[in-house]
Amino acid sequence: TIKLASGTITATLKINSTAVTGGVINATSVQQSVTPSALNVAVANDALVLTCSAHAASADLSYTVTFVRP
Questions:
Q1: Which of 13, 19, 56, 61 is the most exposed place for a label (fewest CB within 10 A)?
Q2: CB 53 within 8 Å of CB 9
């Protein structure tokens, strides 16, 4: 889930440098969520990276990433 106090932003979730399939979301002041459209695998010591772009007066970004361990 992702939410801003104000403004808009586009956020892309990556595992290391690989974009999570279906992991792009346009965030606003209304809480939103996205479910990846393909199996994305992370292993120990991988980095989850949130890349933000298209900022428009964005403030106070908060987000949660939920994952399932097989």
A1: 56
A2: yes
